[in-house]
Amino acid sequence: MIEFTKKYKAFTMQEMMVVLVIAALVVSISIVVLNLVQKELWIANKNYQKQTEIRLLEKTLLNDLNSLEMLYHSATGELIGFSELSRVDYKFKPDFILRNKDTFFVKTDKIQFFLDAEKVHSGIVDAVDMQIGRRNLFLYKQKAAAFYMRQLWGLN
Questions:
Q1: CA distance 71 to 121
Q2: pTM over 0.70, yes/no
């Protein structure tokens, strides 16, 4: 007669089920947390790209203001920068700004142009005030002291 009295050390079915339930809970919680982290990273990346686009627009427009003569046409909504060697055209659309063949994907809420601290509706400009979301950009042309001296003496 064979005796089956020898006991083997093992987990019971109930103990295995408890371990599986706990493992499933840990995995599901980690997936939920991972999804939240991914959403936060996506939002941070989107904000970073938007801020980078605004900084690039600011740098480019400021460089053009200081190196070119700028002329605004209100009828066409274009800002034209020109010199003897080059020409740059800005077209302001509600959701983006075109500079020649470059596109800045920024949504502008308000744009105003100035010449010597006076608002300009058409003509030569030396400053641009732009509202982009909650950020306000005021870009202006650096003028040498000789410009103001000539103005003071009426030589312009």
A1: 10
A2: yes
